[in-house]
Protein: NAD(P)H-binding protein
Amino acid sequence: MIEIYPRILSEEVPMFVVTGANSNTGRAVAMSLLERGAPVRVIGRSTERLRPFADRGAEAIVAEPFDRIALEKAFAGAKAVYAMLQPGVIPESDDFSAYQREVIEAIASALVKARTSHVVALSGWGANYDKVGVPLEGLAILENRLESIGTLNTLALRPGWFMENATALIHEIAASGSASGQLRGDLALPMIATADIGAVAADALITADFRGFSARELEGPEPLSLTEAARLAGEIAGKPDSVYRQISPEDALARLLSSGFSTTMADAIVRMTDDVNAGRIRMMQPREARIITTTRFQSFASAVLNTERTEENHGR
Ligand SMILES: NC(=O)c1ccc[n+]([C@@H]2O[C@H](COP(=O)([O-])OP(=O)(O)OC[C@H]3O[C@@H](n4cnc5c(N)ncnc54)[C@H](OP(=O)(O)O)[C@@H]3O)[C@@H](O)[C@H]2O)c1
Structure:
């Protein structure tokens, strides 16, 4: 952990800017910075949803992710910026690629105009596959765009599979002892908790010791399959015989369409999942070159189920 107070008090106060502050990762970055006493400016789309940060002393800026003027103002004077493509998916979108390109251009233009020197960008393991489609193609486009800015120092973080993706699975296991999805049950996924991504990003923002462009893969302490994840979640939930079942791409598509996804977005998610199942999307850097974080799936699943129980006790 980095000690920051002495530097803040002795030098000009550095400001750290966090885009997507209400996303899983953005929230984790902002909270991690605030816990270390760093001055933080958070950007999100609603004052109400930014209140938890403002209550802890952050400056809150309400802006759409594609609003380049608002971003430029928000980035002004920043020591370093956390930049991300928010959200991961817009279910009803018919042209998510166009949306992501607009957000990327807004971020890039604002970084240039605000003369930002350091950016920690959220990319992902999807950027490892050069033929990746929507929604992950935006990650490589973001990386390339940031790399093209000569004056900018960029650290692109390429985390693997977010444990948060398993939240629904954990709830299903707790409720019924079974869960299903299109991902193969036997595939070891490079799982990582977004809280850990937040801590790594906060460290990098504060030290800002990277030069030029670099990309680092991030993953948790051990890869885990969904069959194993279901078993572990079942043990925690008191359903030790819990199982995960893989469903066909056709059934996955039907599920997505019936839950409100547009045809193009549902098709894209099914293709992306096929890419993961076939190993086309995978971690590429040698494990010793990756940043390995500490949260295990068991702790993550326990926290998900404890939060649910607490909310039930409070009459959610
Ligand atoms: N899931 C994975 O396994 C994985 C792995 C590697 C990389 N990634 C990358 O991680 C990024 C997603 O990160 P994340 O999970 O932290 O984000 P996220 O949780 O998907 O972001 C959700 C936030 O986006 C905002 N939002 C919701 N709908 C929106 C809309 N229609 N337009 C604009 N903003 C909207 C909301 O915040 P407001 O309050 O501001 O509205 C919401 O809280 C993606 O770029 C993804 O490719 C994901």
In short: The pocket of NAP is lined by residues 20, 22-26, 44-46, 49, 65, 84-88, 90, 122, 124, 135-136, 139, 159, 161-162, 165, 194 (CB under 6 Å). Residues 1-11 have pLDDT under 50 and may be disordered. The chain is about 45% helix and 15% strand.
